[in-house]
Amino acid sequence: MRDLFLIGFLVAILLAGFRRPFLFVCAYVYVDIVSPQRISYYLLSSVPVSLIVFIAAFLGWAINDDKSLSKPTPRQVLLILLLLYCGYTTLTADYPDAALEKWDWVWKALVFSIFMPMTLYTRIRIEGVLLFMLLCLSSIAVVGGAKTLAGGGGYGTLNLMVANNSGMYESSTISAFAICSIPLILYMAKYSTIVRPTIFSRLYWYALAFACLLIPIGTQTRTGLLCIVLAGVLELRATKRRFLYIGIIAAIATAGIPFLPKTYTQRMDTIQGYKGDASASTRLAVWKWTLDYSKSHPFGGGFEAYRGNKLTIDMSYRTADGTVVSVVGYDAGRSFHNAYFEMLGEQGYPGLALFLAVHLIGIFRMEVIRRSYLKEQGANAWVSPLAAALQHAHLIYMLGSSFVGIAFQPYIYYIIAVEIGFDRYVQIHVKRRVWNPFRKRRRDVEAEEEASEAEALPEPEPEPERPLSAAAERRRAQPRWGNVNGK
Questions:
Q1: 73 close to 424: Cβ distance less than 8 angstroms
Q2: Contacts from 401-404 at CB under 8 Å and sequence distance 24+?
Q3: Could you tell me the pTM of the whole model?
Q4: How confident is the model at residue 382 (pLDDT cuts 50, 70, 90)?
Q5: Which helix (H) or strand (E) holds 190?
Q6: What residues form the membrane-spanning segments (predicted)?
């Protein structure tokens, strides 16, 4: 029954795509995030669904779409360079077979993020992609949130529709992306033009945001907790009544902590110190190995280079009575658990530089747009809030990726693609001088120019008065509403 529903939904989107080719782009977003071929028992799992929709999206754009905005932007050029460099490191990888297996889905994520901005040249298309992204995420988050409320969950044990703990269904990955999607959810609840803000639509969006907050609790990931803290701080910047906001957050936290599972609070307590915790100590050992590895392999070892690590793990810690307990462990082939070290180990310093440039430029450009249209009203009132939501989502990802290897997860590249399309749309259609921290404000420059022009130009001479004719003089002298005697 589930197979029939998944097939019916996918076929419906593809049929609608022949009428509106842009829907092929949305269909690929759905296939890449939800992975219906992994949920299906038999029918879809035997068909290359991702490749079919991938080709359909490109053909739909090539045959029946506007090509005027196909010129690549600087960030698209950086993504192209990153794609080419990853291809080179794959050919020279330390573990060729494993590297080709990862390259099989990484290249599609990068190519599609380069291609997607060419299709996002209207506001409704930008919001359409965001809507599909959030609805696809909701199919995972709502299931996880419901199971968490029912008392299920646990680190690596919360079943999110699939049995394997990988991709978007991996505990730390879904925790980071669920929290980074909350700013986008709050934007859609207030400004969406596709799903108009009503009491029912807002109720759904707020319920989805609550489900996303439950995901880190159900998966019991420390990454999710840190992302929640950052999301709360970033929303503090956007709110007008900050003291009221702080009070509400403090009240919710105080009231909610007693209801948290004991296993969750015990796991969160390990954030205070890494020693004595095998997971944290192992990550530090992997990061240290990566720094040493990059000295001898500055251009990276290709995908899955971590398979060559051999670790000595120090987990010495001090007990409550002051006794030092020395524990030393050994391990090998442990993954990076950090997107930045993942890029450094697999793609070397050039890959890490391209990776950071793509993300930091996006965050900076969203700040430029947010500040430029902060006080905008009317038709363009949505511009600054969307820029802030994209920026906050990106910043939360940057924090979450410090504790999980999600450098190439497609979800963040969809956010980057939306940023590029949105940035281009603002520059072309909204047309306003943008904020720049390295130059004077526009009104200050205009005031200085007007003052200098006023000093340079002499005052104009008064025009000579023209004499009035005799008839005009008599009309001017007579009373306007009749003579004095009323005749």
A1: yes
A2: 401/176, 401/338, 401/339, 401/340, 402/338, 402/339, 402/340, 403/172, 403/222, 403/223, 403/226, 403/283, 403/337, 403/338, 404/170, 404/172, 404/173, 404/176, 404/223, 404/337, 404/338, 404/339
A3: 0.82
A4: very high
A5: helix 182-191
A6: 43-64, 76-93, 105-122, 129-152, 172-191, 203-231, 243-260, 348-366, 395-416
